[in-house]
Task: structure prediction
Amino acid sequence: MNKWWIPAVSALALLNGCASVPQGSIPVVDSGVPVSNSERVSSQRTANNYPQATAQRTAQPRAITEDSGVVVMIPGGGAAVSTPISSQPFTPGPITPGPAAAPITTGSYTPSTTYRAPAPITASGIPSSSGGLAADEQLDGPVLALLTTAQQQQSSGDLNGASSSLERAQRVAPREPQVLYRLAQVRMAQGDAAQAEQFARRGLTFASGRPDLQASLWGLIAQAREKQGDAAGAALARQKAKVSL
Amino acid sequence: MTRTRSPRSRKKPPSGGLRPWLGWALKLSLVGLVVLAGFAMYLDAIVQEKFSGKRWTIPAKVYARPLELFVGQKLSKNDFLTELDALGYRRESAVSGPGVAAVNGNTVDLNTRGFQFYEGAEQAQPVRVRFSGDYVAELSSTNGSKLPVVRLEPLLIGGLYPKNLEDRILINIDQAPPFLLDTLVTVEDRDFYHHFGVSPKSIARAMWVNTSSGQMRQGGSTLTQQLVKNFYLTNERSLSRKLTEAMMALLLELHYDKREILEAYLNEVFVGQDGQRAVHGFGLASQFFFSQPLAELKLHQVALLVGMVKGPSAYNPRRYPERALERRNLVLDLLEQQGVVTAEQVAAAKKMPLGVTKRGSLADSSFPGFLDLVKRQLREDYRDEDLTEEGLRIFTSFDPILQMKSEAAVGETFKRLAGRKGSDEVEAAMVVTNPETGEVQALIGSRVPGFAGFNRALDAVRPIGSLIKPAVYLTALERPSQYTLTSWLSDDPLSIKGADGQIWKPQNYDRRSHGTIFLYQSMMNSYNLGTVRLGQEVGVPNVLKTLARLGVERQFPAFPSMLLGAGALSPMEVATMYQTLANGGFNTPMRGIRSVLTAEGQPLKRYPFQIQQRFDPGSIYLIQNAMQHVMREGTGRSVYNVLPKSLALAGKTGTSNDSRDSWFAGFSQDLLAVVWLGRDDNGKTPFTGATGALQVWTSFMNKADPLPLDMPQPDNIVQAWIDPHTGQGSDASCPGAVQMPYIRGSEPPAGASCGAQAPATGDAVMDWVKGWLN
Result:
């Protein structure tokens, strides 16, 4: 009768026990972060903490500026010499039409042995002094701004960000060879020599009448080919770089 | 129950006397209390587990491309305003903050909202855009300083939903707009800040109201109880559920503070149904009904959303606008009564329209075809759970303006051609890409906009007919020592003996032979006999190799009928093929996705731009020239009935046997579009490539207003004057002489000058075309 408090106290102790999380300390973790427009910007990030999902961040940007002494990294690179564009899945007949299996060089394809590859010409009559990479200041506002952003991202080691900004610039000015040149450079820094070469080649198709820029593009192609184990192709490209200048 | 609340009650002595029956009652109730305590512990575990863990799974959000602004950009003011409307910018006379735009003649002032992109944050900023014609002429900050480039925030075009189809945009309580919390508390639970989870006062009031009116008119649930109900319990209506709900509400209040509970409520509340998708939380509701971020909502919008909580379907402002308006105004009155807002504010808010976006407007359309493409590309890299639960943000190349224009082109063309017998059963698919970047910008999988079913752009694999022909002629033009655009080609009848001994006798569409013609003329008029002859000369396997180099991965047998397009491709595969033709011989894998960010805005994955040179630019230059002849004088020439002559375009018609498939693929400098028309049951249609697909294509290009095709002339190309009848070298001074491009060295020797006289009429060569041809 007067032991009523025994079950009461034990019950209360139980209840108190289950209420043991002190008020105010909230063990809440949200999976998502707010994504309404005003908030999205607030989730800033530093340039260096990318989860490296796709990139092979193998080389620092500066590593590739050295022309000589680039280590050929492709296994079996010696074999690749005979097929200069081995990175291409297609090495069909018409591209190498002549019996001379000379390494293919872009820009001035030799579609048939009977046609001599023309020397780079300043076809459109644009004075050659306007070509070249030192002419960044001649670019349009948006392209210049985006190339500058990409440059900053690259020098802080954010190659993916630089790549992304350059692709943005390429959408704004799809036929600006300087953008393609920078894209090729960044691909090179990312360790993707095959794509570096492709972008440089694309740049060449838009670089008519800009010998300085052509020389730089050929120089980059030479580096890219070297990296892919194509010494002969690299030598040829270096030759082209000299002719362009 | 209240004993669980406060330890103080422990010390309270039991009231009442000492009579034995009372003691028994006490003992019984103590036993009950112990049982209850056990139940409470069980509930407490549930409450804490779910509330402290990952509260919600968030479907991946898919965004359109952000609109970039820069001086010299081709963008009409109308298209720009369409985009701003879709993004929910309010039009005001002066810009007062993010999400507001003011239009003044050719100038638009706006304040962007800012956004976290892959490569960095775009800050919210005030911007002035001046248009001149269809171009951006000036871009500056409103203080006058020039801006090189500005990005708007991207339009949210959809999500990747799990099976339960719950969707939400998570918000912080700090993002709640003014009045939202006060309105919510005023309307739903006036004692929220004072009760412990349940409110005896409101229960009493509800009982009073309900008994006096004789029906269930008011519920006594607190916000906490509502949250518990939605969060933990089923919709069952019973006393035991009600009691469980009350206990859980008390437990929730015990562990978490009011703001925490309110924030969860803001994100959990159900506010509407969008087809199969359940719209949860005010964050998504704000986007769903107003296309605006929650923080930007004004009093009248807040009142509407809060008013809808009582009955999301009954007060659906799109379906029952009058009822919703009445409810909104009732909420506003209540706010005034309770002194939350002033009478003036209420009067002003009541004057506002509901302001919900219209169905069918850009902001309120769904694009299942494109989302399907995005999903397929994502599935190669992510598990389904990652896509439906982790709140990933997917950035795509989707251009909503081009999508609306392609949908309009399809709709209007079908309307115009409705008179043709059998056109009702004809379906449509369309792929729009940017040839210079390889990005997919718009996609139509059905002639019914927004239809989420069979995606014909990706899955309708149909014979491509004459769309194959550029591959045949390109194979020849890659051998400049043998073939030029002005090589002679016989269109005489021929028969081919197949490996099985069968004789194949191809026919021209007009069932006539056209004698000996120039190679480019056979291409532009889509002559079958000339094409088969040429294809046999260069070899079917080589043509198939060319096709593969153009980017077609599908394998085909080397039958002669392949030369006339017996092989079947999807519109997307055709787009890949023509992309290589349009982009100077550089192939690029089609991309719909640019990058993926995590829910926290961290970069996760990029889909980089990749190219690969597959052809000599010189031979591509030649085939583009032939494809421009198709448009100027050949089977595609009806395009210039609508489009200006100054717009250089290249393309090719395609029609399969018995007009079962009507194709057109073509491009300008900056826009490539592939259109397919045909029936799902593969029956006959009333359309050829020219009378069907080309009409859609033309209508689309007319709306999209692209840049003229302008491939830079490769170094190995020379332009030569020729006599249009003989193909012999001529001179600029000769009457009728025309210019043709050749790979250097393959041009005919230059002819003698005809003196100083200016060339007279020069259209003799253009008389080859008669009637609608394939």
About this structure: Confidence is low (pLDDT under 50) at residues 11-137 of chain A. Chain A has nine helices and no strands. Chain A touches chain B through 93 residues (CB under 8 Å).
